[in-house]
Amino acid sequence: MSMLDSPVASILTLGCKLNLADSSSLSKELSNVGYHVINTLSEADAYVVNTCSVTHVAAQKSRRLIRSVRRLAPNALVTVTGCYPATAHSEVLDSLGADFVTGTGDKSHSELVSFLQTNRPLRKVTELKDEIFRQTRSFIKAQEGCNDVCAFCIIPRTRGRERSRSEFLVVEDVNNAIANDSKEVVITGTQLGAWGRDITPSRSPDQLIAAILEHTDIPRIRFSSLQPQDITPEMLALWHDPRLVPHFHLALQAGNDATLERMRRRYNTADFRDAVSRIRAVIPEVAITTDVIAGFPGESHEDFDESLAFCEEMSFSRIHAFPYSPRERTSAFKMSDDVSHPVRKDRMQKLLELGKRSNKKFRETSKGQTRSVLWEECRDIQGQSFYRGLSDTYVPVYMQLGTDGEDLQNRITPVALGDLFKDGVLAKPLKGKIGSEGDLQKERVYMHD
């Protein structure tokens, strides 16, 4: 079957980086069975809606997207995967009009691909505008599932128990990403710090990172996300390699010990503070991002004030804050000391305002630094053309196109960071020209305890 005859499948993804990794894997599998795969809400012969249900808002977005696709393409095949089907009532799922519904994991994905292969429609899409399934950064799943069962979290119900993928499979995926011209991989999982615990003999995340460094030539590796107990000396010792970006995502959830205990997290604020200190001692320029829940049941005004102060102390480069969302089949769902919706919203707003101040401060301190940037797209801003990319420290970087019009798309170059601009910073090429990727392979100067 030629590409002109291949039916078009659109994969639409909601939720976390793990879902992005799943969508990338599904794209490859669907291509192998004769589909032309895109990842935009465009005309297609079949759709895969990869859903999320981590909060009630995410579940609502999943339902809305499924219904929208069904209305927009009444004659197309509509399939649903991801976390939402495991949390939705069967009558609600039936009302969405999908042709096939499954959950998460390799078995579910194989069933979805088999359904689309067996029921492959004839090509009806007439114009594609050169669309393909495109990810400048490739998301690689290393692990799935979680054994921790935090009080607020539905994910163990939707993703199951911890299952690690072998180093061989992860390395193979990274090398496939390189073959597809990816310059950065994001290694992800439900509980990434648990990688290797279920392997016999047991393995640890630093061994996975070491394998990727040894057996691949990927220019940039981002490891997301971790918890304080995952930050070991063995892991931090690997960051002498400049391919490991100076960015850690440490999920906080609350900056108050009483709240953390009710959440059934496996650390307290002292543990978190210690992990941050150890990271910054080894990688002074590091960006540390986090997640925080506002208004968890039982969170008093004093608890929240303490949590807010702790977030300010940590000087995060970015804070993802969201209000507590009750999820059925979690222990927090049965807690009686609920925080009212207006209070949750007010606390979330305060966290977001702190996040904006912290982010601005981090971007201001980056002025004058030389950083590597992966250029992702060209944008027209106020009548001028700018390239936009991400620095190794996860800061959006903008650089105005020069008169030579050199193509930077999907390239990594070193730049000098300047003034704040939009949601990021402005940059200039070093010495008035674009540097080579080889210029970036320089040892960082580290400070050790």
Entry summary:
This protein is α/β, with parallel strands linked by helices and 449 residues long. 33% of the residues lie in helices and 22% in strands.
Report on the structure:
With 449 residues, this protein is an alpha/beta fold. The chain folds into 3 domains: 8-118, Rossmann fold; 137-365, tm_1862 like domain (pyruvate-formate lyase- activating enzyme, Alpha-Beta Horseshoe); 370-440. The chain has 13 helices and 17 strands. It has helices at residues 17-32, 56-72, 84-87, 90-95, 106-118, 155-159, 167-179, 205-215, 233-237, 257-263, 269-282, 301-314, 341-365; strands at residues 8-13, 36-38, 46-51, 77-82, 100-101, 137-144, 163-164, 184-189, 220-223, 247-249, 287-294, 318-323, 370-381, 384-391, 396-400, 412-421, 424-429. The strands form 4 sheets. The chain has a 5-stranded parallel β-sheet, with helices on both faces. It has a 5-stranded mixed barrel with strand order 13-14-15-17-16. The protein starts with 7 loop residues before the first strand and ends in a 20-residue tail after the last strand. Mean pLDDT is 91; it is low at 442-449.
